[in-house]
Write a structure and sequence with these properties.
With 427 residues, the chain is an alpha/beta fold. It has two domains: 181 residues, 2-enoyl-CoA Hydratase, Chain A, domain 1; 232 residues, LarA, N-terminal domain (Rossmann fold). 33% of the residues lie in helices and 25% in strands. The chain is built from 14 helices and 20 strands.
């Protein structure tokens, strides 16, 4: 029987050898976006979850901060921020008492044209001289406390001293935090570099720091603590498809709203499995560009037993962004040793300009190479570059299957035709 994966805008078919038992080959079809995202935004803001409306939270004389993510996220800030500004105006707060802050975390600083693209012409004009980009290295970031697990929370001074803090972001499955959105607009969004490093490097490898887990996930729970310490009052989170179209909006209390948004995202992307697979075949589709392509590999790890094999198919036609990662993968350092370096602040020089989340990928990929037999099907990387990652190279999917079959004649196999937008769930 033939199977397929989605690859570079088309399909690649392949056959499974005798002795391999397919336990799942479910393909989650793309979720269409809604026709009117502005109307969906208004619906969410008019019916907030666990919170009064923005108009009822605001009071004349307040200093308000609007937080929004950067261009690495598809959140349509240009559509939603005008609506929030208008509601604040109706509550007696003029634009002159509102600051907009791009919550970049430790991502690269966007250019002025990129900032204008994110917020749109109207907001860029209305908040002239009051649009800011968070600087995680700023000397005036303010320490506001520690989480109940002892993580330092040091945030942007404008956020620390604001009377009302409102965030806009995206809620999607997250490999470590369970789901994105919610209080991630605070941690890492507007936290200092040392605060983000303290949090991320401490909890990144805890067994409960994983996708589709919120309760008991220390990584997520510390983020929630940071949100409470910062007094984040209201959050608007979007569920967005791979075409950057809005599927649904959730607004209100940053914790209750995020919980409902996460449950909705789970209903779209969960793929049940009866057991851990010996072999997982995963396509990076529909997230095949740059570092996004690695998401499918990380998700495949959640469905594969330790010592098993993963066939990871990704075109890598725009592989420039992962080349520093490949360079570090080539070093003989183990995941454990590299992680210890990060904990004490010893970041390799060639990675210092990258965000903390990118640097973390080095640890994860070294660990993946130690834990699984990875065969990478790709066109954009050479066999030598794949070897630098401690992976095996295959020019096509059928060749990869033959390589793995030589080592495992009998196996339970999970196939993810679109591995970039699924959440494996072991029953």
């Amino acid at each position: 029987m033939s199977h397929y994966i989605n690859y570079d805008g088309g399909r690649k078919t392949f056959t499974i050898p005798k002795g391999w038992n397919v336990i799942s080959s479910e393909d989650r079809p793309p979720v269409p976006g809604i026709k009117d995202p502005i109307q969906e935004t208004r619906r969410a803001l008019d019916h907030p979850i666990g919170s009064p409306k923005i108009e009822d939270l605001a009071r004349p004389g307040m200093e308000v901060v609007l937080l929004f993510d950067d261009l690495q996220r598809p959140t349509p800030a240009y559509l939603t921020l005008p609506e929030i500004l208008n509601r604040l105006n109706r509550a007696g707060i003029p634009d002159t008492r509102i600051n907009g802050i791009c919550a970049i975390g430790t991502h690269p600083i966007p250019t002025l044209p990129q900032l204008k693209e994110k917020v749109g012409e109207e907001v860029f004009t209305r908040l002239t001289d009051r649009l800011f980009i968070h600087d995680p290295h700023a000397s005036d970031n303010v320490i506001i406390g520690k989480t109940h697990r002892g993580t330092l929370v040091e945030i942007n001074r404008r956020v620390a001293f604001a009377d009302l803090i409102i965030g806009v972001g995206e809620c999607m499955p997250h490999p470590i935090a369970g789901y994105g959105g919610g209080c991630k607009i605070i941690m890492p969004g507007v936290c200092s570099y040392r605060s983000v490093a303290d949090h991320h490097f401490t909890w990144m490898r805890h067994r409960n720091s994983r996708v589709n887990m919120l309760e008991g996930n220390h990584f997520f729970e510390d983020i929630s603590d940071a949100g409470r310490l910062s007094r984040l009052a209201f959050k608007l989170d979007f569920i967005i498809n791979e075409k950057r179209e809005v599927i649904r909006a959730f607004a209100g209390d940053p914790w209750e709203g995020h919980r409902e948004a996460s449950q909705y995202a789970a209903s779209l992307y969960l793929v049940p499995l009866p057991k851990l697979a010996d072999i997982t075949i995963a396509s990076a589709a529909p997230l095949e560009i740059g570092v996004q392509a690695t998401k499918a590999l990380v998700m495949a790890c959640f469905s594969t037993r330790s010592g098993g094999a993963i066939i990871w198919a990704a075109p890598q036609k725009q592989a420039g962004s992962i080349m520093p990662l490949i360079k570090e993968m080539a070093s003989p350092e183990s995941a454990e040793d590299f992680h210890r370096r990060l904990i004490v602040g010893d970041v390799p020089e060639h990675l210092r300009s990258f965000g903390i989340s990118y640097i973390m990928q080095v640890v994860y990929f070294k660990e993946i190479a130690q834990k699984f037999d990875i065969v990478h099907v790709t066109e954009g990387l050479s066999a030598e570059q794949v070897k630098m990652m401690k992976f095996s190279y295959a020019p096509d999917i059928q060749d990869a299957i033959e390589q793995v079959h030589q080592k495992m004649a009998q196996a339970d196999v999970a196939i993810f035709p679109s591995g970039g937008n699924i959440i494996p769930q072991i029953r």
